[in-house]
Each structure stands twice: as C-alpha cells, then as structure tokens.
Amino acid sequence: MASGGSVDLEDVPSLDLMTELLRRMKCASKPDKRLILIGLRSFLRPPGSGKGTQSPIIKDEYCLCHLATGDMLRAAVAAKTPLGVKAKEAMDKGELVSDDLVVGIIDEAIKKPSCQKGFILDGFPRTVVQAEKLDEMLTKQGTKIDKVLNFAIDDAILEERITGRWIHPPSGRTYHMKYAPPKVPGIDDVSGEPLIQRKDDTAEVLKSRLEAFHRQTEPVIDYYYKKGVVSQLHAEKPPKDVTAEIQKSLS
C-alpha cells in the first residue's frame, strides 16, 4: 500500500491488473440487480442446490456484492462504526439488534464500490416489517428489489433428507442412507467407528423447525409476490438445474 490507502500499481503483477481490468469490462455491461435469497438453511437441502452454493455463482455472474446480515453486523461491531457501536450495546444487553439498525448497516454497505452493480441479500428480511423498512430505505435511494429467489423444497423431501443423515462426530464426516451411504451401514468409511444420528435430525424436531420457518417466512414471500418479483426455484433439483433456473429467472 502507498500512503493515503492508495495502491502503487507498479507493484501489482501485470496478470492481476489485466484480470481485474477484464472483470471490470465484463461487469460494466451487466444490468444492475438487487436480489433477496430466501430458503431454509442450506444444510436442509441437497448439497449444492442451496443458497450457500448458488450465491457465489450469482455474485460472480452479475458482479454483485453478497450481504449476509450476520457477517455485516459482526464487521460493523469490529470496525466500531457508529451503527456497530449501537449494535454492540444491544447485543451486550442480550437484546435483539433493531430492524432500523440492520437496515442502516445494509444502507451503508450497498454504497460501497463493490456493490455498484447491486447486491444479494441473504438472511434478511425475515419479517414483513423488515421487508417494509428495507423497501423504504431503497426507495429513498431511488432503487428497489428486482427479484426474490425462493429456494422452495417440499417438506416431505426435506424429512427424507434430514432423517436419513448420519455423522461421524470426531471427523464431522456426514453420510446419508439414501444419497451418500457408508460402505458398511452405521460405520464410518475411514475409521471404522460407529456413526450417530444427531438429536435434532429427527422428524419431530424438523416439524417444529418447518412450522417456525413457514410461519415467519411465508408472509415475507407473500409480500414480495404481490409486487410480482418472486421466482420459485425447485431446490430439490441437482445444482446445475438450480443454477439454470436462476439464470433464466434473472435474464
């Protein structure tokens, strides 16, 4: 770094400069996009179809910044920004960080150069009130949400996926009785030690989780449906098919 935070370009390898230049030229022709990703956390869906796998693909394809609200809050607290200081005060008291604060942190983030072509919001909004506050903030900036990608998956498929999962606790290796079974039932392939099923990988636990997810999230999806911006994705499909669906809905 040269003084004042600027980079001395002579010190940057030519290949890196060319790569960045080509990336910027490609990005210049891309349309702006402001997206929200909605879906149960990715461990509930097949590996590679969920938000965690698809968001980097979307981010690179459309030159967007990826905004995960949990990460942004932690970064704001660590950087001791005015909003970060307020958020830390709430956290230290054991309180939830207010919707206004989170929207404020998003507002700050999307003004950065990396968000020039738009953003992917992940993990927010979780309630209709949050969606309304987000819309108010974007309207003040003269923009709006272009598309909400709903990673939809049938509850029955989820139940089969979850209740068939077994793990080897020491290594974290995960198996599935249908999709990725161990060579010997109930035994880890590498160590030969027994596999266990997590206490929360049961039909009862999943049922309560799904009820909470539907209760909290479906009103948000309805809110955006009325605005005509929701795309339903078939998240049970193989990753390439999900990627193709996303590209079609964003074209």
Automatic annotation (TrEMBL):
Domain Adenylate kinase active site lid: 165-200
Source species of the chain: Musa troglodytarum (fe'i banana)
Keywords: Kinase, Nucleotide-binding, Transferase
Catalyses which reaction(s): AMP + ATP = 2 ADP
Molecular function GO terms recorded: AMP kinase activity; ATP binding
Keyword hit for Phosphoprotein: no
UniProt-listed Enzyme Commission number(s): 2.7.4.3
Family per similarity comment: Belongs to the adenylate kinase family.
UniProt function note: Catalyzes the reversible transfer of the terminal phosphate group between ATP and AMP. Plays an important role in cellular energy homeostasis and in adenine nucleotide metabolism.
Top EC category: transferase
InterPro entries according to UniProt: Adenyl_kin_sub, Adenylat/UMP-CMP_kin, Adenylat_kinase_CS, Adenylate_kinase_lid-dom, P-loop_NTPase
Top-level taxon of origin: Eukaryota
Origin organism lineage: Eukaryota, Viridiplantae, Streptophyta, Embryophyta, Tracheophyta
Name recorded for this polypeptide: adenylate kinase
Pfam families the UniProt entry points to: ADK (PF00406), ADK_lid (PF05191)
